Amino acid sequence: MLKSEPAVSLAMLKSELAVSLAMLKSDLAVSLAMLKSEPAVSLAMLKSELAVSLAMLKSDLAVSLAMLKSEPAVSLAMLKSELAVSLAMLKSELAVSLAMLKSELAVSLAMLE
């Protein structure tokens, strides 16, 4: 099916990456909400959530690469573009999350003093 339908394969790749990024955003939002309510406990949980999210992203990318290997009509340039966008979004999300984490921890420390 993949060899005969490159459009379906590409749509599936885009869908997998979109779902993966949406789940990552959701995990980060939950982690940040928890951090706001319990900074000491939440730092470890945030690290765990990020590790799980990154593992899921790796898994999704592995599936996408396997699909592309079986679908020669889908170009490598399209894969690189999708991966670049996904990684840029991930970097942005992580940067924002870390900035918020630093800010929340600074506020929490200031309140403890």
Summarize the structure.
With 113 residues, this protein is an all-alpha fold. The protein contains 3 helices and no strands. 89% of the residues lie in helices and 0% in strands.
Describe the structure.
The chain is mainly α and 113 residues long. 89% of the residues lie in helices and 0% in strands. It is elongated, with a radius of gyration of 18 Å.
Mean pLDDT: 74
Low-confidence stretches: none
Could you give the distance between the termini?
64 Å
Number of helical segments? 3
Outline type: elongated
Give helix and strand order, one letter per element, not per position.
HHH
The count of β-strands is 0
What percent of the residues sit in helical stretches (DSSP H or I)? over 70%
Which structural class is indicated by helix and strand composition? mainly alpha
Give the biggest sheet: none
Number of domains: 1
If you compute it from the alpha carbons, what radius of gyration comes out, rounded to the nearest whole angstrom? 18 Å
Which percent range describes the beta-strand content? under 5%
